[in-house]
Write a structure and sequence with these properties.
The complex is a heterodimer. In chain A, 32% of the residues lie in helices and 25% in strands. Chain A has 17 helices and 20 strands. Chain A has a 6-stranded mixed beta sheet, sandwiched between helices. Chain A has a 6-stranded mixed beta sheet with strand order 16-17-18-13-19-20, with helices on both faces. In chain A, strand 7, helix 6 and strand 8 form a beta-alpha-beta unit. The termini of chain A are far apart. Chain B has a domain of 226 residues. Helix content of chain B is 72%, strand content 3%. Chain B contains 13 helices and 2 strands; from the N terminus they run βαααααααααααααβ. In chain B, helix 3 runs antiparallel to helix 10 and helix 11 packs across helix 12. Chain B is globular, with a radius of gyration of 21 Å. The termini of chain B are close together. Classes of the chains: A alpha/beta, B mainly alpha. At the A-B interface, helix 10 and helix 11 of A face helix 8 and helix 9 of B.
Chain lengths: 506, 355
């Protein structure tokens, strides 16, 4: 028997508008911890969902223990000894730990033998250092404990290949340390682990081999010994020249956005933005580089007024209040969020609605009568925008969910930029877009800058940062660790700061 | 060969929507036919009776319009809530509370007012106001605490129904009711203008007028525009500066107010006294009406009219063919099922694939 337990070969998976996996090859050896590293949206989770039978690949083959297999469902995956702990747990809150584990068992007929399960769970828990009371109800447990239950579930079914999707995202540092101990213990007993993460440090700590993914492709697979944070950061965020765009020198004028000591909590509770201060002038682009998950989204949402924060945000010299989106819109702030489908668009509404989602009543240039307003009035101005921003859609009435990712982003851009905003917050504006659409986004943003807009560009892709920015700040764990110039010679410096190795406090 | 379900990648055309609605009615009628057959009756004969009386005679038509009125008020209220994907199942309770408000006003609060043009608007306000409050209760719980509105509105129905029962069995039992659980009759000033001896009253026309109001609200105001946005994607609504929590509460208030108004109209226009179980589930039938009308206020009028006819027609076949009245409920259930199934087919298509 060879020591390769899992082999993925030439996996291709596309979703409307996005190529999530582009001919991916991946191997897992017996008894190793293999990290899958990449930014959010790089295609890690998609790849593993294919392995676990949740998605069906468009192309490619899967081999388990050198045998070609078709994995059509998670159930089938378990038969091949593949188990996965997803970011959202699949536990029944009102059931006890033992009952949850018994639920997934094949051997249990109508009434599972809970006593037996409980005993075995206890021995497993002791052996692997998973401290959980089998009789507690799931809803009583912390996220970390629930994760242990998920692990126990896999151990109970003696999964040989365990996939952990961002397991540390919900854990405290102590819990994470315990998890690592458990993983090492499991490997000792012959299991193989695929560890999905975008955090460099923990990947280096736990894994034997590291595969870096970017834009749906495998960039490289390294032995742990050959890797360090700097190398990984570079591979992760990439440095491919896809587009050469010439830009004029910036003409910065007065300060448009001023942020002082901003603190904001992430969705899971702890602070994600930790005392950020920055300013952006009219006519310049400040690029914020950083590995995804270091507080970028929270920072953008706070500045736009969608997230509660403490600290000061001044726009155009005027103090803004926390949670005040409307006042931002009135002062001319445009926001291009990273999750365009989930946040910036109404998928079930027609195109012309989406082009004017926030304008009719809140933007002074528009101010339609709120009691004598018909949405069909938006059609004419929509036609203009469709032409100007080259939005390809069969009709203005088409629901936006049927558009491709690139076209969706054009809709967002058209809406946000058509009223000459004074400040533009753009988060990963080209994620998931093809080269043509990316070029369009770049040119549009640069034009807005030349027309005097202040732009805060948050991106993980260094190429993007370098192409667009006039100054670069690096965000690491919610703090700005330093500033740099956007040119080649500073690449290494930026990489080090992104990895949290170096700090250049201003 | 295997049946595969695929998502459709374009909007459903008006024609296929219409076809789907008609087909779901036909499918329900066919299944219902088997149920009637199993009762030992002739379904064809039943269907002829079902249609010919409520739609083919003056007396039947009048009754149909009268039963349409409460259905129309409640379903228009639901149209607004459903537009925002707020699943208000509480039209029944809001309807009861509106009737309670009207009775309270007519018999106790304003019983000294003898001018109907002062009395009736006051009753309408009171009925709509209490219905609105009943809706707001669920709305506030949803907005502030995240309580599922389906559960809260459904449970509030029972509270409203038992509250009315308590009143009519207890403190509000009328003097001349021979110990039946009925309140006293409304004073003359609290009765809506009646145009025929058999009960055509102002409420029917107000109900139809309300459909224009709802249309205006949804299609011609900022409120309607924001309902569309918040209903489709609450996150995008927040992003566009819409206060979604506030919208949830306001929409539940408007929705409850319309159902409450319906309760008031039913009291002042048709029944004139509060009694237990005075609604044969109008508020629940309204859910089906609103959905079948695809949340279009004008189509709602037509569908409510047909459902009014269904209720009247079933009363008729109950008399002539001894078929139980609960057939109405069976038919409504069948309709809802086939409609939901049809809705799924609009978004997905079935295809045979070779395995």
């Amino acid at each position: 028997m060879s020591d390769i337990v899992l082999k993925l070969s030439g996996i291709v998976k596309s979703f409307p508008g996005v190529l999530a996996n582009d001919h991916v090859d991946f191997t897992l050896k017996r008894g190793e911890v293999h990290a899958l590293l990449g930014e959010n949206g790089a295609g890690k989770t998609t790849l593993m969902n294919i392995t676990y039978g949740i998605y069906k690949p468009d192309e490619g083959e899967i081999y388990v223990n050198d045998k070609r297999v078709e994995i059509t469902s998670p159930h089938r995956a378990m038969e091949y000894g593949i188990g996965m702990i997803q970011q959202h747990f699949s536990l029944v809150p009102s059931f006890s730990v033992a009952e949850n584990i018994a639920l997934g068992l094949k051997e249990s007929k109508i009434l599972p033998k809970i006593d037996l399960v409980r005993k075995k769970v206890k021995t497993l828990a002791e052996r692997f250092g998973l401290d959980v009371n089998p009789d507690s109800r799931i809803w009583q447990l912390s996220a970390g404990e629930q994760q242990r239950v998920e692990i126990l579930k896999l151990l109970y079914m003696s999964a040989q290949i365990m996939i952990l999707d961002e397991p540390t995202a919900i854990l405290t540092p102590q819990e994470a340390a315990n998890l690592f101990k458990t993983i090492k213990e499991m490997v000792k007993y012959g299991a193989s682990v695929i560890f999905i993460s975008h955090k460099l440090k923990e990947v280096l700590e736990i894994s034997d081999r590291i595969t870096v993914m970017r834009h749906g492709k495998v960039i490289d697979t390294l032995q742990k010994e050959e890797a360090n944070e700097r190398i990984l950061a570079k591979k992760m965020v990439g440095r491919e020249v896809v587009l050469k765009i010439s830009k004029k020198p910036p003409k910065p004028r007065e300060i448009e956005l001023e942020v002082k000591d901003l603190w904001a909590r992430g969705d899971k509770g702890p602070y994600a933005v930790r005392g950020v201060s920055l300013d952006v002038k009219s006519g310049e682009i400040l690029g914020i580089a950083g590995v995804a998950g270091n507080g970028q989204r929270e920072l953008a949402e706070s500045i736009y007024g969608l997230r509660k924060y403490t600290g000061e945000v001044k726009i155009g010299g005027e103090m803004m209040h926390s949670l005040g989106v409307v006042s931002r819109m009135k002062s001319g702030v445009a926001y291009i969020p990273q999750d365009r489908k989930g946040v910036a668009l109404c998928g079930g509404l027609p195109l012309y609605y989406n082009l004017f989602l926030k304008k009719p009543f809140r933007i002074p240039e528009f101010y339609l009568n709120p009691y004598l307003f018909n949405s069909s009035r938006l059609k004419k101005p929509s036609e203009q925008l469709v032409d100007e921003y080259l939005i390809s859609a069969s009709s203005l009435n088409l629901e936006v969910k049927y558009l491709s990712g690139g076209t969706m982003q054009k809709v967002v851009l058209a809406r946000e930029l058509s009223l000459n905003p004074k400040l533009i917050i753009a988060v990963h504006p080209t994620r998931g877009l093809d080269v043509g659409a990316t070029e369009f986004v770049y040119k549009t943003l640069l034009k807005a800058r030349d027309n005097g807009a202040a732009i805060l560009l948050i991106a993980g892709d260094l190429e993007e940062i370098f192409t667009l920015s006039d100054r670069v700040a690096v965000l690491y764990e919610g703090e700005i660790v330093g500033y740099s110039k956007p040119d080649e010679s500073h690449l290494e410096e930026i990489g080090l700061m992104m990895a949290g190795v170096r700090r250049v406090k201003k | 060969m295997r049946l595969k379900i695929e998502k459709r990648h374009e909007n459903a055309s008006t024609f296929s929507v219409l076809l789907m609605s008609i087909l779901s009615v036909v499918v329900s009628l066919v299944i219902l036919g088997f149920i009637i057959l199993s009762l030992g009756k002739n379904p064809i004969e039943a269907y002829i009776q079902l249609v010919s009386w409520p739609l083919g005679t003056i007396a039947g038509l009048t009754q149909t319009l009268i039963s349409m009125m409460p259905l129309l008020f409640t379903s228009l209220g639901l149209v607004i809530a459903f537009k925002m994907k707020l699943w208000n199942i509480g039209a029944e309770g809001q309807f009861y509370m509106g009737a309670f408000g009207a009775t309270w006003g007519a018999l106790f609060l304003f019983n000294h007012i003898s001018n109907p043009w002062i009395m009736l608007p006051l009753l309408a306000l009171l009925g709509a106001g209490i219905g609105a409050g009943w809706g707001a209760l669920a709305g506030v719980m949803k907005a502030q605490l995240g309580v599922n509105e389906i559960l809260s509105t459904l449970m509030l129905n029972y509270v409203a129904i038992y509250w009315v029962n308590y009143l009519v069995y207890g403190p509000w039992k009328g003097a001349g009711s021979y110990n039946f659980p009925i309140t006293a009759t409304f004073p003359k000033s609290a009765i809506l203008p009646q145009y025929t001896a058999n009960g055509i009253n102002l409420g029917i026309f107000l109900a139809i007028a309300t459909s224009f109001f709802v249309y205006y609200l949804l299609r011609w105001t900022r409120f309607g525009f924001e309902i569309d946005i918040a209903g489709d994607n609450p996150k995008a609504a927040e992003y566009a500066g819409v206060n979604v929590k506030k919208m949830v509460i306001i929409v539940m208030i408007v929705s409850g107010a319309l159902s409450g108004l319906g309760g008031m109209m039913q009291m002042s226009g048709v029944l004139f006294r509060l009694q237990p179980n005075f609604s044969p589930g109008y508020g629940y039938t309204a859910i089906i009406i609103a959905l079948l009308a695809r949340l279009n206020p004008f189509v709602t009028v037509a569908v409510a009219f047909l459902f009014g006819g269904l209720i009247v027609g079933t009363q008729q076949i109950q008399l002539f063919l001894q078929i139980p009245f609960s057939l109405v409920n069976a038919f409504q259930g069948l309709l809802l099922f086939s409609f939901v199934a049809g809705e799924a087919l609009l978004h997905y298509k079935l295809r045979w694939v070779r395995a």
